[in-house]
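Researcher: Here's my situation. A collaborator sent me these components and asked whether they could plausibly form a single complex. I don't have experimental data yet, so a predicted model of the whole assembly would be a useful starting point for our discussion.
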Amino acid sequence: MRITLTEKNTERTLGGEIRPARIEDLELWLQWLPIMPPDAEDAHWEWDEFIAQGLEYRDELVAFSLLAENKLQGLMLLELESKDAEGNASIHVLRISTAPWNRSPNNRYRFAGSLLIAQAVKLGFELERDGRVWLESLPGAEGFYRGLGMIELREKSGEEKLTRFRFDPVTARVFLGRMQGRLER
Amino acid sequence: MKKIIRANKNRTARTLREIGALEDRYQVGATVSRANDQHLRAKYPLSRSRLLRVKMEILSGLGKQIAESETALRAQPNRETTFKLQRELIELNRVLLQIENLALDLRQDLAESGPFVPGKETEKAMVLAAGDIR
């Protein structure tokens, strides 16, 4: 899927794509490691294993790469057969990370994270989940998911008390509508 | 029981520009709780040999990166590239440890697999290989 990012400092737009991750994307992911902030909540994530899981379990999982300017701008791993808090068939965002240079406050490109979530929602419609998507947010990212219009759930996940968010069919459509112009087939 | 706290209407970005600005203010990151992570690893396990192949890919990629950083450093020494090379070498050590652990686990699996008894030729090859490693 073709997408459009915006360079924060210049407001320049640039094209890119979101596609299922390939094993060769790992070389691009390696560019993240030497510059990943050591205190980042996802600094220790082994994306090599997550991508391998996506390739191994193609019917149940899928990993996506967001690429632009010959660099990996973001990664996401989805579980396709999941149920949200209401028991509805839903896409589960297992992991999502953006490149270290796309992180606040000095992020280079805008929309890497929101476009990946839009891809998950789009898949939620294509796979007849009515756009339903749910996830457990890292503490530093809760404001981001609230801002996207996701519904925040009272029930927290695990010992870490991660906040859960979900898109239902209505909020999913509103979000995708707002992302129009950034996504094309 | 009503599980929803709020629909976040007041905090929802209403325009594309506002959505873009969210990434200036917040991190982007979703994960799974430790309990869920264990559940998912059990549900979607990767064999040790599969993991080994993935780590070898990483090792190869890191090797290329290190060579590039080393060349860049020789051409123009500076702190930034030195720091980058140091981080790459740390990653290299981490991946090497992962590979060593996976190889140990595979050998353990082999030892515990029961009826398999290495023949003389296999034993000889293993002794020679161990000698090469040392």
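Model: Some features of this prediction you could bring to your collaborator: The mean pLDDT of chain B is 83. Chain B touches chain A through 50 residues (CB under 8 Å).
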